[in-house]
Amino acid sequence: MIEARLDEEQGADILVVKPGMPYLDVVSQLRNRTDLPLAIYQVAGEYAAIKFGSLAGALDEKETVMEVMTGFKRAGADIIVSYYTHQVAQWLSESKVRDR
């Protein structure tokens, strides 16, 4: 919180929290303390954990990714940076076509 306040005082246009998944509480606290846009960055290790977990059959990739993205949004992120961005856009597009 101190670092975010200093960044804001120095004129930051946006605050970025990374890694994303372990710091949802920080995003939530920042959301309550600032009007700046908040970005959350899903780092490579978080991506790899989901990717390899799904390849091993331990989890459903799409379901897990969408749950993580929902968690980021619910925590207060305005912007989500992820290696899954393209795939999420594709899944959402396919979902819109099915819902018509």
From TrEMBL:
Pathway, per record: Porphyrin-containing compound metabolism; protoporphyrin-IX biosynthesis; coproporphyrinogen-III from 5-aminolevulinate: step 1/4
Transmembrane segments: none
Record-listed E.C. numbers: 4.2.1.24
Xref: Pfam families: ALAD (PF00490)
Lineage top rank: taxon: Bacteria
Keywords: Heme biosynthesis, Lyase, Porphyrin biosynthesis
InterPro entries: ALAD (IPR001731), ALAD_AS (IPR030656), Aldolase_TIM (IPR013785)
Gene3D superfamilies, sorted: Aldolase class I (3.20.20.70)
Catalytic activity: 2 5-aminolevulinate = porphobilinogen + 2 H2O + H(+)
Enzyme class: lyase
Entry's family note: Belongs to the ALAD family.
Subunit structure comment from the entry: Homooctamer.
Name listed for the protein in its UniProt record: Delta-aminolevulinic acid dehydratase
Organism: Vreelandella olivaria
